[in-house]
Amino acid sequence: MSDRIESLIDARIRAARENGEFDDLPGAGKPLPGHAEPYDEQWWLKEFARREGISAAALLPLSVQLARLVEQLPDEVRRLPSEQRVRETVADLNREILDYQIHPSQPFLPIKRVDVEAMVTLWREALEARFEAARQQPPPAADRRKRRWLRRGRSETPDHP
């Protein structure tokens, strides 16, 4: 039985080759990708993640992902547009941390919930720093010309001395 199946497969491959179905395939005549690299047991996982656009961080254990999110939170908070978004972002992260604390997984990392008010304070300081930096910068040339024109127009009117 297996000889018949094998010969049937060989016959189909030979027919496809004769019909030109294997001509112009992508990668024809080129070596297989990664053939010169050392063997990696998880090559298929890495290839799947690359092909599907999954970051390597998504493959990390939940505890490590949460620890990284807590570590990156101050930078993220500084870029948020409003205090409400800061509070929502921290609340979402704290919910995930609480779920992890209730149902921990391996490897276990002790992760504390984030202080919302500390993050809001950080956001306010970053906002104030952005405003201060904007005040320190001279206005663009177009704005200076417009102001000069407006001042000139006011000084020439009889209502304004």
UniProtKB/TrEMBL annotation:
<feature type="domain" description="DnaJ homologue subfamily C member 28 conserved">
    <location>
        <begin position="8"/>
        <end position="78"/>
    </location>
</feature>
<protein>
    <submittedName>
        <fullName>Uncharacterized protein DUF1992</fullName>
    </submittedName>
</protein>
<dbReference type="Pfam" id="PF09350">
    <property type="entry name" value="DJC28_CD"/>
</dbReference>
<dbReference type="InterPro" id="IPR018961">
    <property type="entry name" value="DnaJ_homolog_subfam-C_membr-28"/>
</dbReference>
<feature type="region of interest" description="Disordered">
    <location>
        <begin position="133"/>
        <end position="161"/>
    </location>
</feature>
